[in-house]
Every structure is written in C-alpha cells, then in structure tokens.
Amino acid sequence: MRLYARLIVSLIYKIGIEDWRAEILSSLGAVYYGGLSMKRAMFALALASALLSGTAGAKTLRYANQGDLKSLDPYTLNETTTNAHINNVYEGLVRRDRELKIVPALAERWENPEPTRWRFYLRKGVKFHNGEEFTADDVLFSADRIRQQGSNHTTRIPKDAKFVKVDDYTVDVILGTPNPILLNQWEYWMIVSKKWSEANGSAAPTPPNAQTPSYISLNANGTGPFKIESHQPGVKTVFKPNAAWWDKPSHNLDDVVFTPISSDATRVAALLSGEVDIIEPVPIQDIQRVNSAANTQVLSGPELRTIYLGMDQTRDELLESNVKGKNPFKDKRVREAFYKAIDIETIKTRVMRGLSTPSALMIAPELFVFSKDFVRPKFDPDGAKKLLAEAGYPDGFEVGFDCPNDRYVNDGPICQAIIGMLARVGIKVNGLIQPKAQYFAKVLKPNGFKTSFYLLGWTPNTLDSHNVLYDIIGCRDDEKSARGETNLGGYCNKQVDALADQVLGESDQAKRNQLIKQAFQLAVDDYAYIPLHQQALAWGVSKSLKLTQRADNAVVLNWIVKD
Amino acid sequence: MLAFILRRLMQSVLVLVVVVLLAFTMFRFVGDPVNQIVSLDTPAEQVAEVRKSLGLDDPVPVQIMRYLYHVVQFDFGISYQFRQPVVDLLAERAPATLELALMSSLISLLVGIPMGVYTALRRDGFFARLFQSISLIGVSLPTFLIGILLIYLFAVTLGWLPSFGRGQVVTVYGRWTTGFLTVSGLKALILPSITLGLYQMTLIMRLVRSEMLEVLRADHIKFARARGLTTHSIHFRHALKSTLVPVITIAGLQLGSIIAFAVITETVFQWPGMGALFLKAVQNVDIPIMAAYLMIISALFVSINMIVDLLYAFVDPRLRTTIKN
User: Fold this and answer.
1) Where are the domains of chain B?
2) A339 with A198, same domain?
3) Which of A28, A217, A269 lies nearest to residue B84, judging by beta carbons?
4) Chain B residues touching A471 at Cβ < 8 A
5) Closest residue to A52, CB basis, from B159, B253, B267
6) Statement: residue A31 has pLDDT above 70
7) Same domain membership, residue A35 and residue A123
8) Cβ distance of A15 and B156 shorter than 8 Å
9) Is the CB of B93 less than 8 angstroms away from the CB of A235?
C-alpha cells in the first residue's frame, strides 16, 4: 500500500501537475457561481451563426425545460413545471383558456344554487387513454385521493367539502363555508381513473417515505389531448397525441419529445443549433443572442409572480442587526425609507435588462382589476435619509438580508443591487445570498422564520387576491390557523384580516373587488411589504412554431402549431 | 495472502462506514429536504407530518444507524423527488456514465500515449512544443469551460455534433442501454468524452513523456543502441514497453476518478448519467440519491485500490514476502 502510494505521489510530482483535486473542486464551484460570466465570454467566441436547422417531416416537437418532470402522479409535486406538463395528459373539471379565464373541461357546466352547494354536470362520452369511460365515480375518487396523505395538492379542495354522486354524470359538492373561488385552483386538480388506479396499487398518492415504487409515478392514464408514450424520469419523456380526445385539437403535432436541460448554456446552444424547438427559460443575458439568430426568437411577457422584499416586524429585537433592544422595522418610517431607497427603474434596466414590470402591489396586475389605482412611491434617497433620521437612525444601521440565488430570474444580482442602493442611504446590509435549498431552510416557518429582511416571490395559486391577503399579508399570531404561514416578516393588521374574511365569503364580484382594494390599501399605507416587480417569462422558440404563451408559464402543447 | 485480503476487506468496510458518517454530517448543511418535497403554501402541519414520516426529526446518529441498517440489506431507499427506488434510478443511469467513462479512457490512452512518445522523441520539434502547449490547456482549463467551448464550436457554429443528450440508444441484455450501436449515439459521445478525457489525456501524455525521457537514458537502452538495433525497435519495443507499467497503473486508478468526476461533464452535456442525477439531487436535497451515489463511488475507489494492491503483490515478489511475514 505504502509503496504504491509513494509511486503515485512521485509520478504526480514528476509530471509537475499541481493538486488535481483542487482543480476539480474549483471547477465544481465555478459551475455553480461562475457559469454566467463564462458564458458571456463564450458568445464573443462564437463565430458567425451558420445554423443547421433540424429535420422536418413528421411534426415532432422537441422541447427542453430547465426543470425535470419528476413524477407522473398528478398529486405528488405541486410546482409549475410539473403541473403544466401533466396537465397535457390529465385534465381537471375546469381548465384555463389562453387568457387564464376558467372554462369548462371535464365538467360541461356547473351551477351554484346555494352558497354552500355546487352542482357539476360532467361531460359525457369522455374516455381515459386506456378506453375506460369517465364518470362521477372518478371525480369522487379523485376528490378523496387529492386530500390524502402524500398529496401535495391538499389545499385545492376544502377539507370539509363533501362530494355526492347524483347520477353517473352529475356530482354535488357540499361546502362547510361559502367559497366563491372554489374553482380557482381546480385546473390542476386533475381527474384520475378510479379503476385503473386501484388496479395498479395507486389508490393513494405515493408518500415521500414510500417503501415501494409507485406505478402511477411512471405511468399515466388521463383524458387529455396527449398520452405518455415513454417516460424516463429526469431524462426524457415522449408524448403522443390522443386521437380519442373529446375536444378538437388545436395542435398539429405527431409527437413531442421532452428533455430536461439544466445547464443554461447548453439549453441555449441546443435551441440555436436547431436540436430543440422550444426552451424554457432563456436566461436574460442570452435573449439578444437568441433573437439575433436567424431561426429563433424569444417570446416574453410578464409573469404572474410578484418579487418582493419583506421585513421582520414581530421580534422585539432583530436577529441580525446592530440595533439592540428594539426593532427598527416596527417603525413605519423605516419601512417607508427602505421602500424609497430602492431604485426600481435601475433594477429594471440594468439587472433585468428591461424584462420586468415594476409593481406597486403584492399581486400581478393581470390578477386584480384595480391594480392600476396603485402607484409606487417615487425613488427618493434623500427622503429616505430624512425618514431614517426622523426615526432615530441618522447614521443608518446594519441588518442581515436573506436572498436565494437560484430561484427567481436574476435573484442574486437583484439582491446585490438592493444592497448597494440601501448603502447609499446609510443602511449597511449584510447579504446572505445562497441556493434556494439553504435559503428556504433558514427563513420558512419550520425553522422559525429566522430572517430580518428577505427577498421572496409569490404567485397566488388561486390566481386570486384572497390568497395573498391570507397567506402573505395576514397575521400569523394564531398558532392554530394557517393564516400568514408565508408571512415571514409577521406584518399584522387586524383590519386587513377582517377584510380578507369578508372577501372570502363575498360572491358579488364588484363588492368583492372593492373589499380587496381596501385591504391592499391598508397594507400599502403601512408599507407592509416592498413589492419589486413581476419578472418576465422568456421562452426561446424556433420561428417554425406558432404558440400561445400563457402568463402562468405553462407550456400548453395543444396550442402549438409547427410549420 | 488470505489474511492480507481479509484485512483489506475489513479496512474497506471501515472506509465505507466513514463515508456514510461524513455524508450524513454534510447533509445537515445542504438544506432542508422537506422544503423541496412540499410547496411554499403547504400547511405547516402537513410539512411537519412529512418531516416525521421521513424520520428527519430524529437525531442524526439515529438517522445514520437506520440508514446503515437498510444499506446492509442493500436497500438504498426511495428517492424523495422521483418516488422511485434509488437503486433503479442509478442502475438506469449507470450505462450512460460507464460508456462515457470508457470512451474517455480510450481517447485519453489512444491519443495521450502517441503524443507522449512523440514529444519525448522530438523534444524540440515544433509539434512537440505545440502538444506541450495544448496539454497545458488540458490541465488548466476547467472542464465545464472546455465543454461549453466545444458545444459552441461543433454544435452551434458548425452544426456537426449534438449539444446534449445521448442520441438514440439501444437496449441490450435486458437493461443495459448503449449508444455504441447507432450513429447518433456515437456522435453524441464524441464531445462529452473529449471533455471528460482531456485531463486524463494530458496527464498520460506528460507521464509517458517524462518516463520515456528517463528510460531513454537507462543502461539497457544504451546497450541496445550499442547492439546496433534499429531506432524504431529501440523506441517502441524496448523503451515504450518499460514506460507503460506506470501508465497502466495511473490509467486504471484514474478510471475511478473519471467515473466520479463525470458530474460536471454530464451536467454540461445533459448526459443522462449518475453524475447529473447526483448534482440534481444535491440541488433538491434528495438525500437517498446523494447517500447512495457517495456509497457507490467510494466502493468503486476502495475496490480499485484493493485490486491495484493485490496486483502489486502478485507482480512484485518482494512485496509478497513482506505480506507473508
């Protein structure tokens, strides 16, 4: 052993190579942190774009996404990429159209005769991919299944909602409390076949601690426009059109090959070289490159997610600050000063390269009609300094800042810009910018909200304001209630809570919007949060495609037409 | 001899246990796996339930013991992300990694050895200097940069080779997928195996060169010259042969690191191998995959080292007597 070890050492020494382990470690690090700037250098190196486009013929759509399609079980994971993918195969009672409006799908129509009773008339003649007829039993089964342990979509249906089969094609839903936005998250409550699931040992969603592999996570049997031909988790998934679909297809595809490509540079290269037809997302710094190529372009539009800053307003002393004995963020003037110190236009032009929509509200303008009535306070560093002085911090103070660097578009650079902007008004911000796995582990509820100042993004999964008022802006003082669970800073205004409760029960849309507006106004006046912007969607697509980009970032295969 | 092998086996088991201990200590710092399983708006009680069901609220030593208990029964658990047995996921991806590693080793040997010989024989020639400079690039440029450079040149600009994936693969012997049997599979192998093998290639080239230079000064070569043998015969029959012993050792040992450090190359080329799976698992805090991968790689290193040790004992009579005593 010793002899051979000495031999190796002497050999490595002889050929004069320094510690190769160090080289490997440093390149590992560089993949994580230096990837972006390196890539820019690569573009300068890339010569003229003599692009070879892929083969035509059978209409094959080749699609690459940053994220994996991890499980085919529609109840296992609740995240945009997975939901959107699976929705091509499984369908809900309702679906969203190109403008995100709720329209009938497996339910032909529905009525709400009493506030707590809904009746759904199911579409007749719909068949699952294996030929089974779709009936009320499948709806009842799916309603139970999605609320069982192991499901990550339990919040899509109220716990106390009872599903009653009236006949094979009519289902009544009895609610404990009125809920005018019951249907809002049902597009991703996807109906699975009762018979098929039970026959294949998948009657319950696979819990994370399962000891046996789950059949439904590798196989699919939906009613949707596409079937799964083959699925290798994290490697490749092939979709084929479902000839027996109940609706008229809008696509003209013969098959769809989906590959996850996690490396940004490789994903862009695959699009430019014509090996794939559509990629999501295009990194901001590559947008020009994709647009200037002959055969590709970037489709962009505002996304529904709102990126914002939050401040700890509950602790009597901040966890990470040099101010002792009191919490500066409890003073509204300090929060206002932070807000005014941030130059959102510079973030938009420099960090986001124009691909963001500055926001005055905690919800995207597409999702709330009165958004236009709210405007951001002007960028005013001098005013911010004055406010800080009035609050007793003429020389500013120090505060810790938590920020993810792989969760939102350019999240790390946004945080760096914010640190610089706050420095100009005298606030020394100690940024802790880290990967999302560590970031979320630190700041979320299970760890006790250990943050003083943070950046987060939020899309209400109901696409409705109540979710924001309840989850983000609602008080989190009641241990038993789920209100305010993602209110990491603990802002609390009982009036907002009261309004949110009224919003939940109000079915008159006009009145409801007024209530929402009042609630948002209270939070805005309190400087509860500092909304930054809605980031932009950026899909890189081959010019041979015609498709619809929906603001929730779902790639709907049925809307893709290939020349 | 048997005692020696047994002793080495015991040591190997010890190494594996230490790897598990280290890995589990590290997992504390990777992040919270539960956050990756649930979504941001999952009710807190449900989050706590998931945590409990996975045993993540137990103290670390308990978690380690439980893991070891399962591992000795060859049960590596179920991936948090895919809800599939880790063994299946890794087995499905092993062919991709092994084929890539094999191809890279071949390239590094087939190109590295001739280049090394050439640079040793024509020390001051133009090409020798050129090869030397190229080898410097191989040693100093990080793998991901070489990979991206090759992609932009051969996939985007020239359009000759694919930028990602394995191309068309064929399933042979039931489970093994191979890219060797199709044109697109072979084309897809070229860039990643060059990227992965470049470092080994330069290593071997430099090794062959320095060994060769040394051997050429040795007595038996001088004697061969004195006998009037042809230069060709001296260089390739006598000098190269005695050069190759350390080269084979290094190449064998490096095979382990090629497989282990394919992580970066696989990620850049979206190569569906074990390394890419591991990196994704790190990002998603998928502990069962991370732990199993680390175990496999350390088992690989341990067994390669053991084989090399045994071979040495076999080849070198002096060592054999030491072992006996």
Assistant:
1) 86-273
2) no
3) A217
4) 41
5) B159
6) no
7) no
8) no
9) yes
Q: What is the DSSP letter of A286?
A: G
The reply to whether residue A446 touches residue B32, judged by beta carbons under 8 angstroms, is yes
Q: Is residue A3 part of a domain?
A: yes
Chain B residues in contact with A260 by the CB 8 A cut-off are: 270
Each residue's pLDDT expressed in tens, for chain B with a length of 325 residues = 678 788 888 888 888 889 888 888 888 778 888 887 887 777 778 888 888 888 888 888 888 888 888 888 888 888 888 888 898 889 989 999 999 999 999 998 899 888 888 888 888 888 888 888 888 887 888 888 889 999 999 998 898 999 898 888 888 877 788 888 888 889 999 999 999 998 888 888 888 888 888 888 888 888 888 888 888 888 877 788 778 777 877 877 788 888 887 899 999 999 999 999 999 888 888 888 998 999 888 888 888 888 877 777 776 666 666 665 5
pLDDT band at residue A532, thresholds of 50, 70 and 90? very high
Interchain CB distance below 8 Å, B148 and A155: no
* Domain B86-273 part of CATH 1.10.3720.10: yes
> Global pTM?
0.81
**A210 and A336 in a common domain:** no
* Closest partner CB to B164 (pick from A31, A270, A447): A270
Residues A50, A84: one domain?
no
> Which residues of chain B are within 8 Å of residue A47 when distances are taken between CB atoms?
157
CB contact under 8 A, B280 and A234: yes
Q: B163–A17: do the CB atoms touch at under 8 Å?
A: no
Which helix H or strand E contains A512, and what residues bound it? helix A509-525
A421 inside domain: yes
For residue B324, what pLDDT is reported?
Answer: 59
Residue of chain B nearest A75, judged by CA positions: B38
* Residue with tokens 């589990």, as numbered in its chain: B24
Residues A36 and A85 in one domain: no
Residue ranges making up the domain that contains A456? 302-536
Same-domain status, A211 and A323: no
pLDDT above 80 (res A21): no
Is the link from the previous residue into A435 a cis peptide, with omega within 30 of 0?
Answer: no
How many inter-chain contacts (A to B, CB under 8 Å) are there? 240
Cβ of B163 and A46 within 8 Å? no
Closest-CA residue of chain A to B307 = A1
Q: Give me the CATH number covering residue A155.
A: 3.90.76.10
Output the CA angle A519-A523-A526, nearest 5 degrees. Answer: 140
> Are both A200 and A97 inside the same structural domain?
yes
Residues A188, A329, single domain; the answer is no
Domain count, chain A: 3
**Residue A233, domain member (yes or no):** no
- CA nearest to B260 within chain A: A24
Q: What is the pLDDT of residue A11?
A: 44
Nearest Cβ partner for A441 among B32, B38, B53: B32
Contact A463, A433 (CB under 8 A): no
Query: Rounded to an integer, what distance in angstroms lies between the CA atom of residue A560 and that of residue A61?
Result: 9
**CATH code for the domain of A452:** 3.10.105.10
Q: Return the half-sphere exposure (C-beta side, CA atoms, 13 A cut-off) of residue A39.
A: 22
Strands A94-96 and A278-280, bridge-based pairing: unpaired
Residue with tokens 């359009």: B159
How do residues A415-474 score in pLDDT, each as one tens digit?
999 999 999 999 999 999 998 888 988 898 888 899 999 999 998 888 899 999 999 999
Contact B210 A149 (CB under 8 A): no
Q: What is the pLDDT of residues A332-385, one digit of tens each?
A: 999 999 999 999 999 999 999 888 999 999 999 989 999 999 999 999 999 999
Q: Is residue A236 part of a domain?
A: no
